[in-house]
Design goal:
Strand content: 5-15%
Largest sheet: 4 strands, parallel
Number of helices: 20
Order of helices and strands: HEHHHHHHHEHEHHHEHHEEHEHEHEHHH
Number of strands: 9
Oligomer: single chain
Strand order of the largest sheet: 4-5-8-9
């Protein structure tokens, strides 16, 4: 009998790895502290109309792969029938050997639908029908998926002006056992050179109830929105940057730049950096005051294809890794907050893996009494949430810093199929620790090593973020 591709010991290459995964990691709840799931789809308990709706809509990883194979855009993000899009996907998967999508696709088919076949043009029709039939039941609605995968916490990504109405509905729904918490994402607060910045300030004024005509009032409005988010369960923030901004600035300079932006006067790169630097420090202090964690996602060069950006807009799969240096900027930012005792718990993610060792050395400079891993290096992100990317991050963290307080994996995804990525990470983690045991780098004491594995899979995040 042929062994299925995804089997019980898949990616677990020795007995120690198998023991660590099956006895310690496998059954741990999922604590997904960074995602881009749509809270409305959870609050309404969305049912997916078919496999294209569930598996392909909004997934820019898959869109990029299909474009690489020369598939016309209409069959990727266009108006082609859903079945045609799935058929194209199915016949394309065999050409993705070596890409994480090959792993993810088959793990998703098995865990969500019980299908352990290799997807191809030959079985596409059958898989389409079998999956769609299962999607008609209650088990694979959004809430059904959260329950099925034992998701204890999931954090969405939310703009400061968001009403959080869907989070409020979710919290009031006794059928939802997962804690669905908002995350404060102030990118538009910092995006001062955007031509829509003035309009955003007016929206912020309206939702906060604070008239904004000065920088001080602007930050008062931001703080008011933080209080609103905190009331509704938020305990994390998230900032996204290409290059991390840090330049010495004063409140007077930030206020002057802010006033000019409201008048729609052109700003220089240096002025933008000064405003962002000072405002990011202000945000960090406000996060510390509320006991929040601050996430910094750094290194994405976004929307590089101007022709397709005009057609499809942002987040459509035309982003890249930015090459740049940030050791001085990151150390300076953390140091400024640490000096005044206002450094919040902080997680630093980079899209450029050449910076892993630098980040590991940096975060070691700013740890804090009473908190294990107060400043963290985030998991392999975006292009690196795959086997080699995860291993590279884990090895850099463990060899230069400490892996034991690591808060672990997240989905960073818009897809409700992505919860299997926690299993994927756990298998890779256990194989790494298992290999260290087999090679004599760790003791062959499974309970001893297994505690650290469980902490990374769940316990550390549960203790670090405090979301209930």
């Amino acid at each position: 009998m042929t062994t299925p591709f995804i089997h019980d010991d898949w990616l677990l290459l020795n007995k120690s790895a198998q023991t660590l995964y099956h006895d310690y990691a496998k059954a741990m709840p999922i604590y997904d502290f960074h995602s881009h799931l749509n809270p409305e789809e959870i609050s309404t308990n969305k049912s997916f109309r078919n496999m294209t709706d569930l598996a392909l809509s909004g997934d820019h990883y898959k869109w990029r792969a299909l474009r690489w194979l020369g598939i016309e855009e209409d069959l990727i993000t266009g108006d082609a029938p859903d079945k045609d899009k799935f058929m194209v996907w199915a016949r394309s998967v065999p050409e993705m050997l070596g890409n994480p999508l090959y792993h993810w696709t088959h793990l998703e088919l098995l865990r969500y639908f019980g299908i352990d076949e290799l997807l191809s043009a030959e079985n596409a029709e059958s898989v389409w029908e079998r999956c769609n039939e299962q999607l008609q039941g209650d088990g694979l609605t959004t809430q059904g998926i959260l329950k099925r995968f034992n998701v204890e916490v999931v954090c969405t990504t939310d703009d400061p002006i968001d009403s959080l109405e869907h989070h409020i509905r979710i919290k009031a729904d006794s059928e939802v056992n997962t804690a669905v918490a908002p995350t404060f994402r102030p990118d538009r607060v910092l995006d001062i050179r955007n031509e829509q910045f003035g309009g955003y300030v007016r929206q912020l004024s309206e939702v906060s109830g604070i008239e904004i005509s000065s920088y001080v009032q602007f930050m008062e409005a931001v703080a008011a929105r933080m209080d609103y988010f905190h009331k509704h369960g938020c305990r994390l923030s998230d900032q996204g940057f290409g290059e991390l901004p840090y330049a010495h600035s004063t409140e007077h300079e930030a206020a002057y730049i802010f006033a000019r932006a409201l008048k729609r006067e052109p700003l220089s790169n240096a002025e933008e950096q000064k405003f962002q630097s000072f405002t990011l420090l202000q945000l960090g202090r406000l996060y510390h005051e509320r006991g929040w964690s601050m996430q910094l996602h750094i290194g994405a060069l976004r929307n590089n294809n101007s022709r397709m950006f005009a057609r499809k807009g942002r987040d459509s799969g035309y982003d890249s890794i930015l090459d740049f240096n940030m050791a001085r900027e990151l150390n300076s930012l953390l140091n400024e907050l640490d000096q005044s005792g206002q450094l919040p718990q902080t997680i630093v993610y980079t899209l450029n893996p050449s910076q892993y060792e630098m980040i590991a050395t940096t975060i070691g400079n700013f740890q804090g009494t009473g908190v294990k891993g107060k400043v963290q290096m985030g998991s392999g992100w975006w292009f690196h949430d795959q086997k080699e990317g995860m291993l590279q991050q884990l090895k850099a963290l463990s060899s230069i810093g400490l892996i034991s307080p690591f808060v672990g994996m997240l989905t960073d995804s818009r897809s409700f199929l992505s919860f299997t990525r926690h299993e994927y990470f756990r298998r890779i983690l256990c194989n790494l620790f298992g290999t260290w045991i087999e090679e004599g780098d760790l003791p062959r004491d499974y309970a001893y090593v297994g505690r650290t594995v469980q902490n990374i899979c769940y316990n550390n995040a549960h203790a670090y973020f405090g979301i209930k």
